[in-house]
Amino acid sequence: MNHSGSFFGLCLLLLNGVFGAGTEEVKSVSVMEGDSVTLNTDITEVQRDDLILWMFGPEETRIAEIYNQIIKYFNIEIFSERLQMDSKNGSLTIRNIRTEHTGLYKLIISSRGTSYKRFNVTVYARLPFPVITSNSSNCSSSSSRCSLVCSVLNVSDVTLSWYKGISVLSSISVSDLSISLSLPLEIQCLDDSYSCVVSYSFTNRTTHLNSDDLCHTCSAVAQRSSFMMVIAVTLALLAAIALVVGLMCHGRCKHSGEKVKSRDEEVNYAVTTFCALQRTDIISADHTVYSTIVT
């Protein structure tokens, strides 16, 4: 395969001071690690004799080109088959991009004239989804309130925010350093319109609140408190009822004992009196018999 034409064209461009002019606009491109990014040439269609050349880094290392409508990739280890050129317009796609692919990309378009572009590509670390947890230590005594915390670990150049619908309730930002962020929020339970968002300037990750899963903690605490109070009141009432019933039973038993004792004494007196009368009657009867015999 003959690429002498592309090399000759590149030499002419260098001699004409294309890269020394420094007047071209640099387009900034931000992308998250693991995603794909496409650097566009803004060409409608590559012609047969066109030269489309992509270079990377401060040393302007050639990484891909189209010449005579033939695509060629140069053996650059850090890209490891991640590059793909569009045969129709010459745009360059970097698949599964990594942080080491951050840098300056230069494009030379040699057709009837010569044009060039520069892209300053910044690759950011993969953005994690924020995690929403229930802050049970600050649980409200009322079941209608719920205390939450949104957290994200090991991030830099991000903003962490609480939203209600599309309105920002609170936010916190960090730059440069890789740290962990947390943002508290107290809300009304049974309201799922809240979400936590961690964002770069060009993309974000959102976690929506599910109040049924997270706000039950405060409600459960309140329910347990109410349940324990009901149990305590019920036990107190039962104890009071048992005490009253016990006192009543004790009073009745004591009163019945006194009545039985009085009746026993009266019966004893009656029997004693009855026995005395009986003896008198018997003696009188004996006396009458003896009187009849003497006559």
Task: Give the secondary structure arrangement, pairings included.
Blueprint: H1 4-15, H2 18-21, E1 26-32, E2 37-39, E3 51-56, E4 61-67, E5 70-73, E6 83-85, E7 92-94, E8 103-110, E9 114-124, E10 131-134, E11 145-155, E12 158-164, E13 167-174, E14 179-188, E15 194-199, E16 204-208, H3 211-214, H4 216-294
Parallel strand pairs: 1-9
Antiparallel strand pairs: 2-7, 3-4, 3-8, 4-5, 6-7, 8-9, 10-11, 11-14, 12-13, 12-15, 15-16
Protein name: Ig-like domain-containing protein
Signal peptide: 1-20
InterPro entries: Ig-like_dom (IPR007110), Ig-like_dom_sf (IPR036179), Ig-like_fold (IPR013783), Ig_sub (IPR003599), Ig_V-set (IPR013106)
Output the CATH class name of the largest domain: Mainly Beta
In one word, what is the shape? rod-shaped
Q: Which spans of ≥5 residues are poorly predicted at pLDDT below 50? A: 1-5, 15-21, 262-295
Indicate the mean pLDDT.
Answer: 79
Strand tally, please? 16
The side-by-side strand order for the widest beta sheet comes to 1-9-8-3-4-5
CATH domain fold name of the largest domain: Immunoglobulin-like
Helix content: 25-40%
Q: What structural class do helix, strand and pairing data support?
A: alpha+beta
Give the biggest sheet: 6 strands, mixed
